[in-house]
Amino acid sequence: MKSLLEAGVHFGHQTRRWNPRMKRYIFTQRNGIHILDLQQTLGLINDAYSAMVQVAAEGGKILFVGTKKQAQEVMQTEADRCGMWYVNQRWLGGTLTNFQTIQTRIKYMLDLQEKRDQGYFRLLPKKEAVRLTDTLNRLEKYFTGLKDMTAPPQAMFVVDIAKEDICIAEARKMGIKIFSIVDTDCDPSLIDHPIPGNDDAVRSIRLITNRMASAILEGTAQREALIAEASISSEEPSDDTTTIDSSNLSDEELEQIAVESMPLEELGQLMEQASSYRTEPSEGSEQEPSQEG
Q1: What confidence tens digit (pLDDT) does each residue in 12-43 have?
Q2: Could you tell me where in the chain the CATH 3.40.50.10490 domains are found?
Q3: Which of 26, 194, 250, 263 has its CA 20 to 30 A from that of 164?
Q4: Please, are residues 209 and 41 in contact by the beta-carbon 8 Å criterion?
Q5: CA–CA separation, 158 vs 11, rounded Å?
Q6: What are 202-239's pLDDT values in tens digits?
Q7: What is the CATH T-level fold of the domain 1-96+152-226, as seen in this structure?
Q8: Bridge partner residues of 54 (DSSP)
């Protein structure tokens, strides 16, 4: 709670700019500014954290989206930290709904990067080299964070859904889970996991984005642990399939193996039964005492 207060997460927009659907998350107003209820924010951050861990643990990929100036650096840093994709420049329409075309542009960018690194540009006429360099710079500006994306993501974390309205519309159409910071001017009903908070302050954006990236790292670690455990289990020989070649064993060795493989409890029961047989007299074995005349 203290971290949320220090980061200014509780500050909303001016009261005249509010969205009535955010009413349940607003605590009060001060000096014409809405103040968000951080108790609810804290609970929803924890809910979003758990849900994000689950997505990552199931092998899902998450796309970070934040193109406003305050969010650009944070999106790139946190996405790189957890090994996910990001968009921190302009959202290009069709990034999700027309992914095949976007994938073609990404492939073209990777081809130009390879040619540049191999020195191909230096062999071209200056005018052509400059044209290709400008094209590559423009592609890198928009697609660097998506260069490893081969399929649409399973979830998205978005900052400022009012600004990223096209992004939200595409994600909803594709059925992608949406996690987002929602300020007092946003519609939380558009989001699967809304987090009421200040989406304009850098410290607020960094705090919440950091939690989401940490959730992804935790989920990824859980998945890797399960895969490693399954791999070890598959490599271990099963006791049920273990066979012993008895053709080269002596009678004494076979007896020892048979005894060692018998459960101790069963051995104990057999011993108790044998002991009771020895102590019980057999029928008709009792003799009456002789009478002396």
Answers
A1: 888 888 888 888 888 888 888 898 989 999 99
A2: 1-96+152-226
A3: 26
A4: no
A5: 18
A6: 999 999 999 999 999 999 999 988 888 887 776 665 55
A7: Rossmann fold (3.40.50)
A8: none
